[in-house]
């Protein structure tokens, strides 16, 4: 649309507005045509803010999580709308944060509902915001107890991603087995638990990929990447901490990438978010 056409529209629109002077008329047009908060993002932000109020004094840790998430979501709304030199969004994009909420009876129910709604929205918000929403879904699912969901049927692109994740899991098991030889006896149960989790993921990925053809097998050995291999108990604990951080980042990135696909698969995203949450809870 050319500038002359835009100017004519603005003139015509201004003519339909009440008789206003100078800046008032311009402000009214800007308010009418200006950017608006993305509806799904605003709903998530308002829900997080309401949850924080409802949980305050009931479960302060959960309230803090939801308050921080609300802050991030409102900031994302402002970022998408744009700001003036003073950092303020257009009036058309201003939002009012909830200030009242009924006191929650059960923090688990609130957080479970939040996790479900945020997970469902991971591929529904604007593409630019999907990484943020996916990260929040992971944090909420990590707060909840319970196992990760069952792996769904895989499309061809998802099979490629699953094969990459399977190779990653093989590498994690190799590294954990190596580190177990150096940790003290008091840490062996923790390592064994982590090995059990990774083997469960391997079984799920192998079974899912086996429906479509040959399943990738583990290599005889793997490098330690940027980490130095452990040589005693202290270095083994550092090594294990590094592995946990890397695992959380790997699965979080896989979930965010899946949410940003042109035709995202909600079941696949939900599974990836569940596994990423599991990784974060093991840190």
From TrEMBL:
Residues 165-259 form the DUF4439 domain. Pfam families: DUF4439. InterPro entries: DUF4439, Ferritin-like, Ferritin-like_SF. Residues 87-109 are annotated as: Disordered. This is DUF4439 domain-containing protein.
């Amino acid at each position: 649309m050319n500038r002359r056409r835009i100017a004519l529209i603005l003139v015509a629109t201004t003519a339909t507005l009440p008789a206003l002077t100078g800046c008032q008329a311009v402000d009214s047009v800007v308010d009418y045509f200006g950017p608006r908060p993305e509806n799904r993002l605003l709903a998530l932000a308002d829900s997080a803010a309401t949850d924080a109020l409802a949980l305050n004094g009931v479960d302060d840790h959960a309230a803090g999580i939801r308050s921080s998430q609300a802050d991030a979501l409102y900031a994302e709304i402002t970022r998408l709308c744009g700001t003036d030199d003073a950092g303020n969004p257009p009036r058309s994009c201003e939002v009012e944060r909830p200030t009242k909420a009924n006191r929650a009876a059960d923090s688990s129910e609130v957080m479970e509902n939040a996790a479900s709604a945020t997970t469902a929205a991971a591929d529904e918000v604007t593409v630019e915001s999907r990484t943020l929403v996916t990260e929040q879904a992971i944090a909420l699912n990590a707060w909840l107890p319970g196992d990760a969901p069952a792996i769904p049927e895989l499309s061809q692109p998802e099979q490629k991603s699953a094969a990459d994740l399977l190779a990653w899991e093989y590498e994690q098991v190799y590294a954990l087995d190596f580190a177990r030889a150096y940790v003290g006896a008091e840490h062996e149960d923790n390592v064994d638990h982590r090995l059990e989790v990774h083997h469960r993921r391997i079984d799920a990925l192998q079974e899912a990929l086996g429906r479509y053809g040959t399943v990738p097998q583990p290599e005889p050995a793997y490098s330690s990447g940027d980490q130095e291999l452990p040589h005693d108990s202290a270095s083994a604990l550092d090594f294990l901490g590094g592995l946990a951080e890397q695992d959380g980042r790997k699965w979080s990135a896989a979930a965010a990438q899946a949410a940003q696909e042109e035709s995202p698969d909600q079941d696949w995203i939900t599974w990836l978010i569940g596994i990423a949450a599991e990784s974060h809870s093991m840190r």
